[in-house]
Amino acid sequence: MTKAVLLMGSPRGRKSTSNAVCIYLQEIFEKNGLESQDPIFIRNHVATEEKMNDMLVAIDQADIIVLVAPLYDDTSPAIVTRTMEAMAKNSSKYANKRFLPIINSGFPEPFHITEIAIPIYHKFATSLGLHWTGSLALGGGEAMRGSIGKLLNESGGFGKKVMKALDRVVESFVTNSDFGDEALEIFSLKIYYNRVMRKFMLWINNRSWKKTAKKNGGQVDARPYST
To answer: Among 8, 27, 76, 119, which residue has the fewest nearby CB atoms (within 10 Å)?
Structure first.
C-alpha cells in the first residue's frame, strides 16, 4: 500500500489553517486507499535530536511527502527550515519519493507564496532527488479560520473551495500523475480591494499589530533611527 506522510509545519499547532488542511487530507487519503498516520507536528519534533530522528524515520518510510505550512516572511517557518536541513544531511534516502508542498498565507494574493517560497521548496526537492508532484498556494488562508480551531467543512464557501483543490491533489497521488503548480485565491480580490473594505482591512490589521506589540512590550510607532 502506498504510504503518505503529512508534515504539519505551523508553529501555531492544532489551531491553525495548516492543521485544518492536514485533517482533511488525512481523511481523503484513507478514503482513497492511501496509508497515512496522524499528521506530524514539526514543532514537536525539532526540540530534541531523538524526536527529530523519529520524524526523519517516518519520512523515510513514506512514498509520498506532503508538507503543509504557512508563509512566514515570504518563505518557510524556522521549524520547517530546520527539518529541510536535517533531511538534506541524508539526501540519498529520498530519491524519487513524491513531494508536494501546500502553503497558505494570510495575504489574499497567492503571488506572495509563488514568487519566493515555492521556488525554494522546488530547489530543495530537486537537491534531494524528490519527485516534484507540484504545489498548491492558498492565498487568504486566514479566511478559513483555522486559527480558532475550525475545520475546512466548517468554513463555508471558503473551505469548500479549498477542499475541491485538495481532492484533486489526492487524485494525482492515486493516479500516479503530477498535480502541477496551482495558486488559489480563497476569496475574490475585487471584494478585498474596494475602497471601504481596503480601509477596514488596514484598520483591523494595524489594530492587531499594535495589540500584539503592546502585549510583547514593543512599540509599533517607535522610530529609533530617526535622530
So the answer is: 119
147 contacts 12 by C-beta, under 8 angstroms: yes
Whole-number percent of the chain with pLDDT over 90: 58
Q: Same domain, yes or no, for 138 and 216?
A: no
Query: What tens digit of pLDDT does each residue of 142-155 get?
Result: 766 656 667 887 77
Strands (E), the chain: 3-8, 35-36, 40-41, 64-70, 98-105, 131-132, 134-139, 180-185
Domain that holds residue 63: 3-187
Residues of the chain with pLDDT under 50: none
**146 and 201 both lie in a single domain:** no
Q: List the Cα angle 201/182/92 in 5-degree steps.
A: 120
Domain count, the chain: 2
For residue 194, what pLDDT is reported?
Answer: 66
Maximum CA pair distance of the chain? 65
